[in-house]
Amino acid sequence: MKLLFLIIACYVIYKLFSSSKPKVKVHPKKTKSKAVVTKQSSQVYSSHKSIEEDDDDLATFTISYGYEEEKSNNKKPGKWISENETVEINGKVLSKGNFYYGGVLKALDTDSSYFSNQETEASLVDDSLKIEAANYLFTDDSLGYWPKYITLSPKARGAYIDWLFSSRSDPETSIGYVFIYFYGIERRITVDAAKNEVDDTEYNALFNEVLRLKSAYSENRSFSNYASRLLELMCLVRPQAVSLPLEDYSSTNNSLLFRFNLANSVAKGEPISPDIALAWIRYYPEYSLRTPARRCNDKFAQLFKAKYIEKYDEGFVVKPNKTKLDIQYWPASNTIRGVTIDQEELPDPSMLKGPTKKLITIADACTDELEAYSRYLGKKNTSSNDIAAILLLPDRLINENTSPVIKNFKLWANAAIQNDAGLVSVSDFWEQTGTALPEKINKKEVELIQNLSKKIGFGIAPDSRYHHAKPSPEGKLVLFSEGHGEYFEPSKAYNEIGMALRLGAMVANIDSHLDENELNVLHQLINHDTKISPTEKRSLHAYLTWRLNSPANMNGLKARLEKLDSKAKSVVSHILISVALADGKIDPSEIKQLEKLYVALGLNKSLVTSDIHHITSSKSSTLTPKEQPEIKEKAGFTLDEELLALHESETSDVQSMLGAIFVEEELPQVEEVKPQAPKHVDNGLDTPHNSLYNELTAKEQWARKEVIELCQTLGLMVDGAIETINDWSFDIVDAPVLDDDDDIYVDLEIVEELKG
Question: 208, CA 20 to 30 Å: which among 245, 371, 663, 742?
């Protein structure tokens, strides 16, 4: 009797432990073969129902296994149905395979108590089991955490069969059905292919099928990660058959291909390539990319590689370390074994701190440069194609190949320079930006004009920084090649000539007709001055063109001219009359306008006639008979000679006078009203959202599962809560404070701004 009780007690204990699914970690065995099927690990990664769990951490939660396996009377061995093979299921002929079909196909590793009730391959389609017709969108609890065809309800089986008959691409499909299908492909690769039962043609076709599935169901992070890792395994096992671009590597920090490629480069003594360096900083677990690097992923990659090449040329070399590379593949299916690919001849440098410190320095610099660009894109209703976004990019990232706006603008600007000396209307310029012409040109608009021109390699006139003037919405602009450059600092002579050009243009336009001689005189004033650089000359030529094509005015000029001493006023009056005489004649209307300018200078208007006579008489006396023009004796006068003489004057006050007037011309500034941050961060947030926000600001990065748990305690839905907090942040500082990218990231710089 005691023996009977002992047997019963042992049976009860056995059933309790075998049904409770204890948390164990079974490490795969290592062998020296290249690709070895090993014992299935109990490590659990992301849920097939998109439970928010990091793929690199051990799971410590209870899992639902769905229904018990139904007993099947089908004794036909399960076989693989190839891609183009036909099979009859439930009275219908299916012409598209890629799954196991039959009645008997055992799960692997059934000797482990952890998998003691997993008798049948999860993906095996057994049409002898009861099937009820259902649309593939149908789902019920029989799917469980690790779905299996044999444990599905009859109606769920019908739904899965319906999905097999479909395009197998509808993203609305329950991901459990997709995983069942994926399990079959996974077994075909890790089991059958390891036995050389899969040729390269089929291997390539299965690779493309997984790629297709990953694209179709990319919204499910769990499936996307598993698909990426299987693709990586396939590349490692048969590199001659398939390959994968870097952008399709696994998003987790345990990318198989990255670790292999890094190890291979180090073992060969090769420089770390920009691509591998970028992957290293992304996969390094002790470094977390900040918001700009994640939000602007492509731009960050471009900038990082450019800076890396700039600093290290072909790349730095890493000395091989003693730790050996150990690559393990953990399958999504719990009915097949894991795979270890031993590479005992390769080191594992992925965790080395020395090289990663160099990469972190570059990554931080790139992130800082993308901060403004990222903030803009974080706003609602913005696009990377917006001209405002483009202008916030680092200069080295802006070219016609990356932006259609830049490409079209360059074509338009080059045509304007070639055909119209760069002269364009402000409205035409604004049309190229894709935005509406503003009613006024204020500081913001002025900066847009300047920055856009600079970004594409052109200069603009007027440029408020150097020409001390601004255009009007109905006015003109002048574009010129090469522009002012990065470190342009106008000289004293530049400012002197700039003022002379403004005054000269005022006189030249008095009669509403620009004579060619007058134009030549003003351009010669620029060309003949040896004290200014080629860049300054290009800038002044453009400024002159703009002045000659813009209405003349005395804005900001009259008051400063009145303050000049008598000697300086004489110089200015000399310039005005010299320009008026450049065409060889002077009309009564010109005299009348000159008199007005004399009054503005605080001079007696009666001096105009006497100054004209004085200048023409003194100039004509120096001319030989051959030099005398046929029109009148005063027609041979050239302004550049007079002004060059001015520059050579011993009187320094007179030399600098014009430059001083030019620089002092100021633009009217429009005061920008900045939104005031509230004194308390909870303004505008209700109590639950404010509590969540305060919890999240404790650290920069949160596992999504942690945030879900916080939201549950507060009665909030995670997606809605993140949106609410970000909307509140937008209202205050015009930028989001939370970034949802698998994990939840908190922008601590924005947090500080929100504190006011």
Answer: 742
Q: Residue 623, SS3?
A: coil
Question: Considering only 274-278, 401-405, 520-524, which range has the smallest mean pLDDT?
Answer: 401-405
Secondary structure percentages of the chain, helix, strand, coil, to 5: 50, 10, 40
How many Å apart are CA 240 and CA 247, to the nearest integer? 20
Residue 564 tokens, joined: 């000049």
Query: Cβ(302)–Cβ(272) under 8 Å?
Result: no
> HEC profile for 565-616?
CHHHHHHHHHHHHHHHCCCCCCCHHHHHHHHHHHHHHCCCCCHHHHHHHHHH
Amino acid at 130: K
Cβ atoms 663, 502 nearer than 8 A: no
609, 591 in Cβ contact below 8 A?
A: yes
- Mean pLDDT over 453-472 rounds to 87
Give the residue among 284, 227, 211, 225 at the shortest CA–CA distance from 51: 225
Task: Give the SS3 label for residue 135.
Answer: coil
The span from the CA of 29 to the CA of 340, in Å, is 8
- pLDDT tens string 112-136: 444 444 689 999 999 999 999 999 9
- Rounded to two decimals, what is the model's pTM? 0.64
pLDDT top residue among 271 and 744: 271
The rounded distance, in Å, linking the Cα atoms of 267 and 160 is 47
Q: What 3-state DSSP class applies to 738?
A: strand
Which H or E run includes 73?
A: none
Question: Rounded to a whole number, what is the distance in angstroms from the first to the last CA of the chain?
Answer: 80
Look at residue 246 in the predicted model and tell me its pLDDT. 83
pLDDT value, residue 270: 95
pLDDT grade for 736, boundaries at 50, 70 and 90: confident
Which residue in the block uniquely carries the two structure tokens 């205050």?
732
Q: Note the pLDDT of residue 262.
A: 95
The single-letter code of the amino acid at 676 is Q
CB 387 within 8 A of CB 435: yes
Q: What is the largest CA-CA distance in the chain?
A: 147
Considering only CA atoms, give the Rg of the chain: 39
| DSSP assignment letter at 676 | P
Residue 453 to residue 417: CA distance in whole angstroms: 13
Q: Is the dihedral of CA 723, 724, 727, 729 positive or negative?
A: negative
Contact 83, 199 (CB under 8 A): no
Residue 120 near residue 69 (C-beta atoms within 8 A): yes
Strand ranges across the sheet with 701-702: 701-702, 743-746, 738-741
Contacts of 550 (CB under 8 A, 6+ apart): 471, 475, 476
Tokens encoding 457: 């390699």
List, for residues 558-580, the tens digit of each pLDDT value: 666 666 677 777 777 777 777 77
For residue 574, which of 474, 632, 654, 629 has the smallest C-alpha distance? 654
Q: Are 346 and 259 in contact (CB under 8 A)?
A: no
The type of residue at 191 is V
Number of Cβ within a 10 Å radius of residue 427:
12
The whole-number pLDDT of residue 383 equals: 83
Angle at 165 between CA 161 and CA 170, to 5 degrees: 95
Q: Which of 458, 476, 464, 472 is nearest to 418 (CA)?
A: 458
